[in-house]
Structures are given as C-alpha cells and as structure tokens.
Amino acid sequence: MLTTVLVILAILAAVGGLLYLTEATAGVGLIGLACFLGILARLAQAKQHTDHIHEHLVEIQDRVGKLPRLELPGNESRTV
Length: 80
Fold this sequence. Notes:
mainly alpha, two-stranded antiparallel ribbon, 2 strands, rod-shaped
C-alpha cells in the first residue's frame, strides 16, 4: 500500500518535472525520465522475484510440515 502511494507520488512529480522543462534542459529531463522508468522497472522485477521466492518457501514449509517429527534419544518429551 505504501509503495503504491509512493510510486504514484513519484509519477506525479516526474510528470510535473517534465512540464517545466525548457529546450535547454530537455536532454537532461529525458535522461532523468529514462532513469525513473528504469528504477520503476527494477522495483517491479524485485517485487515479482520476492513473490516467487515467497511462494516457493511456503511450498517448502508445507512439505517439511508433513514430515514426521523426530524424537531425540534419551529425551522423548522434546522434539525437533
């Protein structure tokens, strides 16, 4: 939720910045816009990767949870 709000604010700031470009600063503005888009793409890629890893870890956790618990010798009341 917070990330979405920050991205929306960043987009509004980028659009506002583009509106104030002059001919002399248009080149720098385009480079800044390209960097901004690259950063947004990297954030989207990181979120996708994190979601994929989380799904994989949940799947592993489910598999491990189905394994029988091991009893430690000499201490039957304690499990691993």
